[in-house]
Amino acid sequence: MANTEALKSLLTPVQRLATSGARAVEVFNIDQRLFVVVPQLARDIPGQAPGMSAGDSNVDTLIYTWQAGRLVEHDTLSVPGGEDAEYFEIGDRRFLATVGVRSGSGPYTLDTEAILYERDDNQWTPFQRLPTFAGKQWRFFSIGGRHFLALAQGVTVEGVTPNNPRESCIFEWDGKQFGLLQKLDGYWGYNWAFITFGGQHYLAYADHVSGSLIYRWQGAGFEIVQRFDEPGGRAFSFFIEQDTLWMVHANLMGETRLFQFDGARIQFDPVQSLGAAGGRELRLVDGAHGLYLVRVCFITGTPHAPQTQQQSQIFLWRQGQGRFELVDEFPTSGGTDAAAFMADGQRYLLVSNALAEDVRFRVDSVLYRFDG
Hints:
Low-confidence stretches: 1-5
Radius of gyration: 20 Å
Distance between the termini: 19 Å
Strand order of the largest sheet: 1-32-31-30
Shape: globular
Helix content: under 10%
Number of strands: 32
Strand content: over 45%
Structural class: mainly beta
C-alpha cells in the first residue's frame, strides 16, 4: 500500500444528501436528463435503542435529478426496507427494478415483494410484482437477444421461516414480463457482476454464508465454474485489459482481492490484496488518468457492535503491471455504494452512507467532485 499521508486527494465534497440508511446509488439518463435513485433501509424511531436491525423500515426510495449544478429531490417510490434499484432498457421501454429486505417497524417481516416499474408518461408505474425474502440486489444483463434479471436475496436467521421463495434466482424476459429461469444455490445473497469474455458469458454471485460463486452460461442456464468457500461475500467487479480478464472480489469479513483469469483452467487466481475486512461495494471509474477502483467500506466488528467509521479507498490501475495502486482514501459512515457520473463537463462520485457513528440510520450521503 502507498503512504496515504502523501496522497493527493481526488475527492472534493460538494453536496450532502439527507438520507436515512441509504443502501445503494443508481445513476441513469432519460432524454438527456440525469437521475439518481437512492434506496433507504430505515428511519430512526425516537426512544428506540440504536442497532443495525432496528428502526422503521417503512421509508421511501429517493429520486433526485441534476439541476443547476446539484442534485435536487424530484420524486419518491415506496420501497420498504429499500436495498436496491436497477435501471434498464429493453428496446424503447424503460424500467426500474426495486427491492427491499424487510417491512415493518418491529416486528419485521422479511417476506416482501419486489416491484418492477416502467417509465410511462414521465412517471414510474408498477409493471410487475415478485415475491421475495430478504431481497438485496437486482442485476440486469443481456446475452444475444435474451434479457435477464438476477435477484440476490435470502438470510439465515434462527426462528424465521420464509413463506416466499428464499433462493437467489435469475429471471428471463419473455416479451411481456419476467419469468423464473433458474434458482441458485445461495442462502444469503448480496450482489452480482456480469461480463462477456472470449465468447463466454460469466456471472459472479456474492453470498454471505453459502460461498460466493462464478457461473458460466450454457445456453439454457448457468453452471458453476468456481466457488469461494469463505463467508462474507459482498461484491464482484470485472474488467478487461490487454485481452486479459480481471476480477475484484470484496469480502466484508476478509480481504478484498484482485484475481486474474486463467482461460485454460477456467479459474480466477488471486494476485493482489486490496485491503482487509470491511469491503462492501466496488465501483470502477474511467477517469482522465486511467481506470480507478473505488472500494466502499461498510463496517468492521460485529452486527451487535459495529464500527461504522471506516476509510474507503480509491485505487488506480497500473497498465502492464497487473496491479492496482492506492491513490486516495476517504471517510465513510457505514458506506454501502458509490456511483460515478458526468455532469456539466465535470466527473462526480456519489457515495451512500447507511449508519452514523452511534449506529443511527440518519446520516448524510456525500456527493464529491472527482478530479482523477
